[in-house]
Amino acid sequence: MTAIGIFGHLGRMGTAIADVIPDAGAKFAGGIDHGGDPQALARDCDVLVDFSAPGAIEAHLDAAEATGTPIVIGTTGLSSAHHERIDAAARAIPVLQTGNTSLGIAMLAALVREAAARLDEDWDIELTEMHHREKVDAPSGTALMLGEAAAGGRGTTLADASVIGRAGLTGARARGTIGFASLRGGTVAGDHSVVFAGDGERITLSHHAESRTIFARGAVRAALWLAKQGPGRYTMDQVLGL
Ligand SMILES: NC(=O)C1=CN([C@@H]2O[C@H](COP(=O)(O)OP(=O)(O)OC[C@H]3O[C@@H](n4cnc5c(N)ncnc54)[C@H](OP(=O)(O)O)[C@@H]3O)[C@@H](O)[C@H]2O)C=CC1
Ligand SMILES: O=C(O)C1=N[C@H](C(=O)O)C[C@H](O)C1
């Protein structure tokens, strides 16, 4: 039985994941939060999942690498330095990093890429996301993933095309940009919409997470899949066979 260890195990996602591990025929190997020993946890499990905080990623990757343990990283708010560290770790161990572990978001990203590729730049692309009042990063990791999908469909990158938030005398919208707006409040598990705004008509592609269970099930599915892979950096599309 595959033993899964959780970084951030007392958090909202950590507890949701621990709840669904038995349903997947796997074993909860334990978890740590602030002050725990990442290497001790990594030694005690077959695969790790990380839903903690960006500041903890480096230590968690060090532990995974030192013990040769595959790791799923769901934590968001990552910088380009974090992504470079993940790339380096993936040369030695299996690593899957994603801003969203749900099946629905993987499908939405594919649809967004397709729509962005087929609709020309007369169709402006804007993303909105809403999350619970406790969320600490913005835009959400999922919004950035959907933005990357849109940018990929348009043959550009988010680094070149993104406009994150607007306020004051912004001037008119620049053609070809991809805009982001973030809302925070209440207990919303995660809502994302991608709007394609044309002349006189709009297409909106949306996903609504009704609870964290979808993320938790996806994280466990990803962990069980990753435990059987060799070193490399993987995506949810590969887990889900999309
Ligand atoms: N990829 C996906 O599908 C999803 C990703 N997420 C992401 O997962 C992350 C966690 O979300 P959520 O569970 O809501 O957050 P919580 O704040 O509820 O939980 C985070 C947990 O991580 C722990 N933690 C924080 N810093 C450290 C550290 N330096 N070392 C070890 N543990 C630490 C916290 O412990 P303590 O209280 O001791 O600080 C806490 O138990 C976020 O980045 C969120 O965006 C969320 C949902 C889905
Ligand atoms: O913090 C959350 O709650 C969530 N975070 C992820 C993100 O930043 O996209 C995934 C999900 O939307 C919930």
The overall pLDDT, averaged over residues, is 98
| Spatial strand sequence of the major β-sheet | 2-1-3-4-5-11
| CATH class value of the largest domain | Alpha Beta
Annotation field: number of helices: 9
How many distinct domains?
Answer: 2
Q: Please state roughly what percent of the residues sit in beta strands, choosing from under 5%, 5-15%, 15-25%, 25-35%, 35-45% or over 45%.
A: 15-25%
Q: What ions, cofactors and ligands are bound?
A: NADPH dihydro-nicotinamide-adenine-dinucleotide phosphate, the ligand O=C(O)C1=N[C@H](C(=O)O)C[C@H](O)C1
Task: Note down, in words, how this protein is organized.
With 242 residues, the protein is an alpha/beta fold. The protein has 2 domains: 3-101 and 213-240, NAD(P)-binding Rossmann-like Domain (Rossmann fold), CATH 3.40.50; 103-209, Dihydrodipicolinate Reductase, domain 2, CATH 3.30.360.10. Helices cover 36% and strands 24% of the residues. It is built from 9 helices and 11 strands. The protein has helices at 12-20, 38-43, 57-67, 80-89, 103-118, 141-153, 158-161, 213-226, 236-240; strands at 3-7, 27-32, 47-50, 71-73, 94-97, 124-131, 162-164, 178-184, 190-197, 202-209, 232-234. The strands form 2 sheets. Strands 2-1-3-4-5-11 form a 6-stranded parallel β-sheet, sandwiched between helices. A 5-stranded mixed β-sheet has the order 7-8-6-9-10. Strand 1, helix 1 and strand 2 (27-32) form a beta-alpha-beta unit. Helix 1 crosses helix 8 (213-226) and helix 5 runs parallel beside helix 6 (141-153). The radius of gyration is 18 Å and the shape is elongated. Bound molecules: NADPH dihydro-nicotinamide-adenine-dinucleotide phosphate and ligand LZUJQKHR. The ligand O=C(O)C1=N[C@H](C(=O)O)C[C@H](O)C1 binds next to helix 6.
